[in-house]
Known about the structure:
Elements: H1 2-19, H2 25-37, E1 60-62, E2 69-75, E3 95-99, E4 119-121, E5 143-145, E6 168-170, E7 191-193, E8 200-201, E9 215-217, E10 222-223, E11 238-240, E12 247-248, E13 261-263, E14 268-272, E15 292-294
Parallel strand pairs: 2-3, 3-4, 4-5, 5-6, 6-7, 7-9, 8-10, 9-11, 11-13, 12-14, 14-15
Antiparallel strand pairs: 1-2
The structure holds 2-acetamido-2-deoxy-beta-D-glucopyranose (4 copies).
Amino acid sequence: MKTLFLSLLISTLLSLSLSKELCNSHDKKVLLQIKKHFGDPYLLASWKSDTDCCKDWYQVECDSATNRITSLTIFAGNLSGQIPAAVGDLPYLQKLVLDHLNLTGTVPDFLSRLKSLTFLDLSFNGLLGSIPSSLALLPNLGALHLDRNKLTGSIPQSFGKFKGSVPDLYLSHNQLTGKIPASLGNMDFSVIDLSRNMIVGDASMLFGVNKTTQNVYLSRNMLEFSLSKVAFPSGLENLDISHNKIFGSIPPQMTQIPLQSLNVSYNRLCGQIPVGGRLQSFDFSTYFHNRCLCGAPLQNCK
Ligand SMILES: *[C@@H]1O[C@H](CO)[C@@H](O)[C@H](O)[C@H]1NC(C)=O
Ligand SMILES: *[C@@H]1O[C@H](CO)[C@@H](O)[C@H](O)[C@H]1NC(C)=O
Ligand SMILES: *[C@@H]1O[C@H](CO)[C@@H](O)[C@H](O)[C@H]1NC(C)=O
Ligand SMILES: *[C@@H]1O[C@H](CO)[C@@H](O)[C@H](O)[C@H]1NC(C)=O
């Protein structure tokens, strides 16, 4: 009797502790492959095969209903190497952050398989090559951070037709060349940051009076277009177009925009700075180093 009771107790405890493993076995296998790919780094020391990835591992989060991995956030470390193919085998990922890791290789095409992704951040690495146009196939993408890498080539045409939501787009501090595809004019980005690249030509398609765009950062490129005819989104808050070859004049409509910050310096603008709105609240460095801009806060027009 006693032994029966004991063995019952033991088997109950055993099944209890076994059933407590929440981690999906496929996802766990994939994560362990990722760890191995990076050479079992100290950064991923909490990823152990005999513990529960949903409860015991850092850098990952599981969905509370399905226990599938929905978030992988590895931040700041030295994981030099390419983005492992195994990442493409986590189909329920909503958030993928591989940031400040010294990663090399390209931005892989297989990321477009991760249809649940809402947030993709690969910034501050050493990623090379061009931006895969297939990223525009991600139907739920809310933010794409590819800034501060060594990406080359031009912005994909496909970024003018994201399949679902319009992501906040951060592509700054790369080596992107070519023109901004005209198709981007179809998008109503909330944030677009293309600064510190080598992009040429027109950027006026990013603007438009009916867009809800709030932040546009284009500084330190080789953009060359007239500002005179640009109609700015009525809710634009931050605009930096400094260090380009932008010509024309500042349109009077800019006095009606609730700008919190503005920088048009180091361009080829001319004419009087329109009077009104926030335009005289910025100091001269917002406007200096242009061809012949004048009026407050610069010197009077002649
Ligand atoms: C990045 O990786 C390279 C090559 O493996 C290495 O020499 C360098 O020290 C790494 N940088 C950092 C900040 O860890
Ligand atoms: C980064 O990792 C690479 C490869 O493992 C190694 O060669 C390099 O020394 C590391 N750099 C630093 C700063 O730890
Ligand atoms: C902006 O929206 C208004 C009102 O819906 C419309 O009349 C106008 O044609 C639109 N302008 C542009 C440039 O799309
Ligand atoms: C505008 O940009 C220029 C060039 O980068 C910089 O020197 C200046 O301080 C900036 N001014 C403002 C108000 O941001």
